[in-house]
Amino acid sequence: MVDWNLCDILPEGERIHVLDIGAAFVDEPPYQSLLKAGRATITAFEPDDQARARLLEIYGDEHRILPNFVGTGEARNFHQLNWPITSSLLSPNTPLLLKFQMLEEVMQPVGQRLVETVRLDDLHEIQDVDFIKIDVQGGELDVLSHAGRLLPDVLLIQVEVEFVTLYRNQPLFADVDRFLRSAGFQFHTFHSLSGRAFKPMIPEAGACSPFRQLLWSDALYVADWMKLDRLDDRRLRRYAVLAHDVLRSYDLAHLILSELDRRTGELMADLYLIMHNQA
Q: Are 25 and 46 in contact, with CB atoms under 8 Å apart?
């Protein structure tokens, strides 16, 4: 297990800009190592008052925690469910949920209200984003399709995707994948594939585990590694840090460092390989 970071290749004081949409703090965020090293600037969106207050307490005034619903810029009904992190701008697909263990039980409607959404393209104070993380319960494609101003500079996207319609009329993984590939990103990997068992059966691992049926995951997309020559040195350095410190994709980090070495005549990729093999 490699336990060192690559942040030192960045110039002193330079930080990676993370945009976290739907940032409710449930698990340690994927960019925690960057925060710990003092190498991340976070702009987070979290409409839930309690979740936003916790984020402010954790991150402090150094980072921006905003209350907006991010989407198409239109007014939408926000469906409040009994487990807050499952609430969505889409309504739950209850007939489907009822077929699975521990889904309908945590996605029961308790109310709804009309909210205004904002488009990322309209928030001009947000610039130069390196890493976008999106978890908005079925509305991820709405966020991405109204972020065309930002996407050309983005190096890494982590987006929750579903393989079945947990919410009514939601885009599925194939739709998100098609959009991001058309925007110039390469699919890299899945993180934490998740599913449930059809009722009434329960796997030995428990009611929150599947036998085989997968339902959702986080999909990770990266800037096209076939076109590294189109990235300037600054973005290549940031890309290498994200590959190493966030993705733990050491082969990708080495590939990016090799492109930097080709330009500069340095030997960072060779040194990286030695350090990786010694770790």
A: no
